[in-house]
Amino acid sequence: MLDIFQPAPFYLVRAIKPLADFLSLWTLPYHIHEVIAALVSYQLIFSVLSPLASSWIAPKTYRGLPPRRRISWNVHVTSMVQSTLITTLALYVIWNDEERKNMEWVGRIWGYTGAMGLVQGLAAGYFLWDLIASIIHFNVLGPGSLAHAISALLVTSSVCIYRDVWTALQTPTIDLKYASDSSIFDYMMATGLNGVSYSHNMQLPLWLVIVYLGSNTLLNFFNVYWFSQMVQAMRKRFQPPNPAKDR
């Protein structure tokens, strides 16, 4: 299955090829323009589109956020757009790339088609943006965000791992939960009942548990960290707000 975009300009291919060869990223020169386009697009969402859309959808709440909270809010909006886009595109390639379907398991991991390279390039572009944002706003996002960005960029740049599609599906839920915590939506009762109902009625299959426990140890460590942050956020719901922490 071919890449839906035009080939990378020759000058970009020639400029990035020495670095790509040194890092053994053999297909990076063919998709460097998509990495750059994704990087620029997500920065545009973060700095322009998210503030405009948020001010229009929830003007009172968004404009009332302190500057540090606005940065976090815009990061969540950007990550939600990215996770929705990359999940949809990856699933489309999985279902429609006949060349990929005819590959053995080795080819599906280390093989290459233009469409697979497109997914990988767009994902790498986002995590490159995430890395830059985590460095620039380190005082707001913290060391956890920086470490997560580094590990995710290394994974998406070196190998096509389509099972991470299912990991990306959790991102919109986390971002919506952040919106709820910011008082734009109050889904406390609904989300609480949904969580209790899910934990009572649903069970994970053993194979899924084995896959998740055996892969991406570092990212799973950060899942524990994010969970502790979510618990702390839920505890804050039952405590009086402290405006001094947001200044």
From TrEMBL:
Q: What is this protein called?
A: Related to DUF887 domain protein
- Give the UniProt keywords, A-Z: Membrane, Transmembrane, Transmembrane helix
| Residue stretches spanning the membrane | 35-59, 71-94, 109-129, 141-162, 206-227
- Does Transmembrane helix appear among the keywords? yes
Q: Which residues form the TLC domain?
A: 68-239
Highest taxon of source: Eukaryota
What InterPro entries does the record tag this protein with?
Answer: TLC-dom, TLCD
Q: Which GO terms describe its biological process?
A: lipid homeostasis
Cell location: Membrane
Q: What Gene Ontology cellular component terms go with this record?
A: endoplasmic reticulum; membrane
Query: Does the record's keyword annotation contain Repressor?
Result: no
Main location per the UniProt record: membrane
Q: How does it sit in the membrane?
A: Multi-pass membrane protein
